[in-house]
Design goal:
about 450 residues; five-stranded mixed sheet; alpha+beta; about 35% helix; 14 strands; Glutamine synthetase; Gln_synt_N_sf
C-alpha cells in the first residue's frame, strides 16, 4: 500500500486512530496508539520515541552498562519509522490498522540496538549476493487458565494448565478447547500470519504452531507478531500463554526452530538442492551449513538470549547441546531436510520460543552467508544417531554468561554485526546474568533454609 493509497483508505473508512509497535532487544513489542493526523504527519520524517526502550530490560529496569542511551545521554527521542508494507488490521481489536516500525534511517545510519534494523542489513547483504532467502519459525508454548493478576497472587506457583497430562497431537484436547483453538488459527490468519499447522505438543496445555514460510524480513515480522498475538487472543479466553523456554524442570521445553533455504531471485530454484549429489546437498548448502556450525559458539546468545534458555538446552530434552548436524536428526543442532527440491531446507534447532526472532534469524542467515563468502568446507561429518554423545566438535555454552562473554570477545560476531550492536547486545545479556546472580531462588530456600 502506497502512502497515497493509505491516505485514501483512512479517509474512505473514517479511521481515527492507528496502532504501531517495534521490537525491543528482547523481542517484546513496544508501541502506542496515535491519531491518524499524527500518523500522517510522521510518515516522512518518523516519530520521536524515547530511546529508553533500548536502555532498559524486560522489566523496565535501566541498564547501567550500555552506551547507546542512559542517564549519561538523558534518554532523548530517536526517530522511529513505520514500515507501510507491514500494514494489517487487528481482527480481535475492532480491525484497528496496525503497523510495525523500526529505527532505520534512509541513509543506513540507524540505531545500532534496533533488532529489525539489524536484520534488514543482513537481508540486503543476502540480496546483494544474488540470493532470495525463505524463512519460517515455529513455536511451542504453554497455556494456563490464569490471568496476570492470578499469577501474581499465586507467586507463579500452583498454576492451572489449560488441559491436564501429556497428550501430544491430541484431537480430543483441542476439541475440548474448540473456541480458543479455532480463534488462534482463524484470527492469526486474518492478521496476516498464515498458519501451516497447529496442534498440541506433549505436556499439559502446550500447543505448537508452524507459520507459513516467507521472505526473511516478513517471516521475522510474522514471528515477532505471532507471540504477542497469541497472548492477546488467549487473554480473550481467560488464558495466559507463556513462551518461556523451560517453565518447569519436569516438563519439556518450548522450541522456536528456524527453517530456511536460499533460492534464485525468481524464487523458482531451490539453491540448497542438488539431485546429482549423494545426499541431494548443493555446494552452496554445504558452505552455508559450514558457516552456521563455525559461527555457533560466537553467536549463541542470539539463539539463546535468556537465563532460562539454557534450562532447555540439556541432554535428552529434545534440544541440542553439541555443535552437530544430521539428516532428519532431532538430536543435533542443525537438522537437514532434503527429500525433494521444493522442501529442502535447514532447520536451526537451538532457538527456544523465548528468542527475539529478528536476532535469531539474523544470526542464522548471517552465519550461513559467512560460510558462503569464505567458501568454508563442511568438514564436520553428519551425526548418525545420538547427537548428545557426539562431542567431536564441542558442546554449546551451558549458560548465558559464558555465551555472552564469548560473543563479546568474538571478532567473527563483530564482523557479522558490527561492534556497536555486539557491544550493546552482549552487555544487555551480561546485565541479565547479574540480575539473576543476586536473586535468591525457591531452590535455595528449600535446600538451605533449615538444614544449613
Amino acid at each position: 500500500m502506497t502512502k497515497d493509497q493509505l491516505i485514501d483508505y483512512i479517509k474512505d473508512n473514517s479511521i481515527t486512530k492507528i496502532k504501531f509497535a517495534f521490537a525491543d532487544i528482547d523481542g517484546a513489542l513496544r508501541g502506542k496508539t496515535i491519531s491518524t493526523q499524527k500518523f500522517l504527519d510522521g510518515l516522512q520524517d518518523g516519530y520521536g520515541f524515547c530511546d529508553v526502550v533500548f536502555g532498559w530490560d524486560i522489566t523496565d529496569a535501566a541498564y547501567d552498562n550500555v552506551k547507546v542511551t542512559g542517564w549519561h545521554s538523558g534518554y532523548p527521542d530517536k526517530d522511529c519509522r513505520i514500515d507501510l508494507t507491514t500494514k494489517r488490521n487487528i481482527p480481535w481489536q475492532g480491525n484497528i490498522p496496525f503497523f510495525l516500525a523500526d529505527f532505520s534511517k534512509a541513509d543506513g545510519n540507524d540505531l545500532q540496538a534496533c533488532p529489525r534494523s539489524l536484520l534488514k542489513r543482513i537481508v540486503k547483504q543476502c540480496d546483494d549476493m544474488g540470493y532470495h532467502a525463505e524463512f519460517a519459525q515455529e513455536f511451542e508454548w504453554f497455556n494456563f487458565l490464569e490471568t496476570p493478576h492470578s499469577l501474581e497472587q499465586k507467586g507463579f506457583i500452583n498454576m492451572q494448565p489449560l488441559t491436564p497430562g501429556m497428550f501430544g497431537y491430541s484431537i480430543l484436547r483441542t476439541s475440548q478447547q474448540n473456541d480458543f483453538y479455532n480463534d488462534l488459527f482463524d484470527l492469526l490468519t486474518q492478521f496476516d500470519i498464515p498458519i501451516e499447522g497447529l496442534h498440541t505438543e506433549t505436556g499439559p496445555g502446550v500447543y505448537e504452531a508452524a507459520i507459513v514460510h516467507d521472505e526473511t524480513l516478513r517471516a521475522a515480522d510474522k514471528a515477532v507478531l505471532f507471540k504477542t498475538a497469541v497472548k492477546e487472543i488467549a487473554s480473550k479466553h481467560g488464558i495466559t500463554a507463556t513462551f518461556m523456554a523451560k517453565w518447569n524442570a519436569d516438563l519439556p521445553g518450548c522450541s522456536g526452530h528456524i527453517h530456511q533455504s536460499l533460492w534464485d531471485k525468481d524464487k523458482e530454484n531451490n539453491l540448497f538442492y542438488d539431485a546429482a549429489d549423494e545426499h541431494n546437498m548443493s555446494d552452496l548448502l554445504k558452505h552455508y551449513l559450514a558457516g552456521q556450525l563455525y559461527c555457533l559458539p560466537h553467536l549463541l546468545p542470539m539463539y539463546a538470549p535468556t537465563i532460562n534458555s539454557y534450562k532447555r538446552l540439556v541432554e535428552g530434552a529434545w534440544a541440542p547441546t553439541t555443535i552437530t548436524w544430521g539428516f532428519d536428526n532431532r538430536t543435533t543442532a542443525i537438522r537437514i531436510l532434503n527429500d525433494s527440491e521444493k522442501y529442502t531446507r535447514s532447520e536451526m534447532r537451538i532457538p527456544g520460543s523465548d528468542t527475539n526472532p529478528y536476532l535469531a534469524i539474523a544470526a542464522s542467515l548471517a552465519s550461513g552467508l559467512y560460510g558462503i563468502k569464505h567458501k568454508l568446507d563442511l568438514n564436520i561429518p553428519a551425526t548418525e544417531g545420538n547427537g548428545y554423545q557426539d562431542l567431536r566438535n564441542g558442546r554449546l555454552h551451558s549458560n548465558l554468561y559464558d555465551a555472552a562473554i564469548a560473543m563479546q570477545n568474538s571478532s567473527v560476531a563483530k564482523e557479522l554485526f558490527g561492534e556497536g550492536f555486539v557491544d550493546h547486545f552482549t552487555n544487555t545479556r551480561i546485565w541479565e546474568h547479574r540480575q539473576h546472580a543476586k536473586a535468591v531462588t525457591d531452590w535455595e530456600l528449600k535446600r538451605y533454609f533449615e538444614a544449613i
